[in-house]
Every structure is written in structure tokens, then in C-alpha cells.
Amino acid sequence: MTGGLLLLDARGIRETALNEPPGFARPTSPFASRVAYAAAHVVPRAAAENVPGAPADLDWEATLGFRRQLWSWGLGVADAMDTAQRNMGLDWPTTVELIRRSAAEARAVGGDLVVGVNTDHVADELIPLDAVVRAYLEQLEVAEDAGAGVVLMASRHLARAAESGADYERVYREVLSRAGSPVVLHWLGEAFDANLRGYFGSRVVPEASATVLRIIEENLPRVRGIKMSLLDAAAEIALRARLPEGARLFTGDDFNYVGLIEGDGDRHSDALLGAFAAVAPNASAALQALDRGDAAEYRRILAPTEVLARQIFAAPTQYYKTGVAFLSWLNGHQPSFTMVGGLHAARSLTHLSEVVRLANDAHALERPELAAARWHGLLDLNGLPG
């Protein structure tokens, strides 16, 4: 043990032992058994106007440095997606710059990169289906011109305009026909964004899944797979079993990823997870174990991070980005605990204290003494000295 760690709960401050650094080794070759992406957050300048409604003003060195460390652990990076505060503070001009800078960085280091393509640059809330298609294509052009892979994100505009599953099939058909290479679809559940309730034409998951399957089967040459973020392991397993050959299921289930990635002996999920941005060394070490065929070691390393992820992604789930940024700060990947739009204030100190406790238990504090010092400083700043 390296020293004491202060924790906050309803009874006040208590102390627990601070665990040793995890000591995981970076991979020496790409993962062989699974494809894995970490969905990265963005870091604003600490001195920027980080208040609700203000344009994003990013610390580019810290933002890109975070991506470099994800790549160093063998993970791909999923950028300009929900974790990067799309629809929660990241404006379109900054998104374009993020895509271009991240794509250039990926080329420089040989990293795998996919970026989110959405319709969120359109200010009007209600637009017809033809305009949804045009909006998707405008962002698709930006991503492809930058040389990035594409995740076709769930669109609030499409959710409002579509009246049936057939409308989704039409929009995806028209957009996918223009894609230069296979893309990943994204099914984001209402726990993450209530505006997406009933996406793919129904609030009944098996009915929406049938629409998804029709879209994938019709457009298979242009669909790499689908990221499923419903926080419903049974629904993911059911859809995964019906996917046509060649289409991957990328789990976005931050509550149940350990078993979904390991699989059932017949099929498994790959990964595209915000949680992996918070626990990159652990995720890398676990996937290396899986590559060696050591499922027990995989579970030993990764299972404690799932407990941590359930706290980070606890309801209201859309504020999980706060936990990802908080751990990035604790682990020394950014100079301040600050977020675009002031989102660093979206979680309470007691919530963050539980994140600290579980991260310590999961050996997800990469530099434990630094993490403890930063956390204790935050407690002291709020009048809660040990």
C-alpha cells in the first residue's frame, strides 16, 4: 500500500488504504481476438469561458495527448461522439477541428480512429427526412475528407421526423449509399439521450431490432457493424445472434461489457465504450489476457472496472462524461478538472468519492499518489479537510 485515501460519504470523511499502481504492460502487437475502441472526451482550456452555452475552447495538447495514451495501450479511438459532449456543449466548428486534428494525429502514430457523423450542426429542431439525409451527408464528407473511419450516430432530427421503421430504412439507405467505406451504425438508448426514445421506429426493442437488421442486411457491403448502447445485455445478445456474417456487434453497454466481450462460446461482442477511456490500461491488459486464451485473468482484471463503470454511468446516465473527465484528471492526463459548458459540476462530491473508491479497488488509478493528492485538494477546496 502507498498511503491513505480519504473518502466522503453521508457520515463524513473516512480513510482507506491507497492501492499500489497497477503495473500493466502495454501491448507489443495489435489485439487479435477483439476489436476495441475507447470513446474519448475533450479537455477545455482551464482559463476558457467554460459555462453553459459558451463555444468550446479546447486545450488541444491535453485533448490530443489523451488520445495518444489510448492508442499507446492498443485501443482504437472513437472521437467526436457522445463522450466528447456531442449535443452537450461541443459545437460544430470545434467538432470539425477535433475530427481533423485527431485524424492527423492518428496518421502520425498509426492509431485506429473512427469519428461520429450526426446531424447536430443543423440548428432547427424539426426538419424533413430529405434534410436529415443532407445533414448526415455534410458531416460524412467532413469525416471522410479527414481520412477517419465513420460511426453513423443516432440523430435527434431523425428521431423527430421519422414516423415508422420504413423512414429509418430510407434515410440509412440513402446515406449509406454515399459512404466511401463501411461504417459503424449506432443505436443509442434513451438512458443516454431521452430525445432518442423509440429510435429505429419503436420503443419495443425486438421491433426496433428488426428494423436494424433490415438496414444492415440491405446495406451490408457498407456496414461494418453496429454499436449498441441500450444497457440491456439480453437485447444485445439477441441482436448479435441474428447479425449477418461480416457485421460486428460493438458493445456500448457500460454496465455489462465484461460478459458481452468474452462472449458465450459461439459469438462475442467487440467494444466501443466510453468506459474504456476511463480504464484504458486495465482494458488493454484484459484484452491481452483474452488474446492469450486466459479468460480467468481477463475477468480478474476487467470485472472490477465494470463495477466502477456502473457508478460512472449511473442515472442520470448522460452525465457519465463527468466521471470520465474526472478520472482523466486524477490520472494526470489533463491539468484541471474542467469541462466544456461547465459539465464538471454535473456530479456531486459524494458521487465522485465513490468513483475514487471504486477506481482504487479496480486498480484504475494509474498514479495513485497523484490521484490522492488531487482528490484531497478538491475536498479541501470544498471545505472538507481530512
Brief description of this entry?
The chain is α/β, with parallel strands linked by helices.
Describe the 3D structure.
- Helices cover 44% and strands 13% of the residues.
- It is α/β, with parallel strands linked by helices and 386 residues long.
- The strands form two sheets. The chain has an eight-stranded parallel β-barrel with strand order 3-4-5-6-7-8-9-10, surrounded by four helices. It has a two-stranded antiparallel ribbon with strand order 1-2.
- Helix 1 packs across helix 2 (92-109) and helix 10 (280-291) packs antiparallel against helix 11.
Write the layout of secondary structure elements.
Layout: E1 3-9, E2 12-18, E3 36-39, H1 60-72, E4 76-79, H2 92-109, E5 113-117, H3 129-146, E6 149-152, H4 156-161, H5 165-176, E7 183-188, H6 205-218, E8 223-229, H7 233-242, E9 248-251, H8 257-262, E10 270-273, H9 275-278, H10 280-291, H11 295-312, H12 320-330, H13 349-361, H14 368-381
Parallel strand pairs: 3-4, 3-10, 4-5, 5-6, 6-7, 7-8, 8-9, 9-10
Antiparallel strand pairs: 1-2
Helix pairs in contact: 1-2, 3-5, 5-6, 10-11, 11-13
Task: Name its key features.
44% helix; 13% strand; 386 residues; alpha/beta
Q: Reading side by side through the largest sheet, how are the strands ordered? A: 3-4-5-6-7-8-9-10
Work out the radius of gyration: 20 Å
Q: What is the helix/strand order?
A: EEEHEHEHEHHEHEHEHEHHHHHH
Shape label: globular
Low-confidence stretches: none
Global structural class: alpha/beta
Tally the helices: 14
What fraction of the residues are assigned to beta strands by DSSP?
5-15%
Cα-to-Cα separation, first versus last residue: 19 Å
Mean pLDDT across residues: 97
Helix content: 40-55%
Largest sheet: 8 strands, parallel, barrel
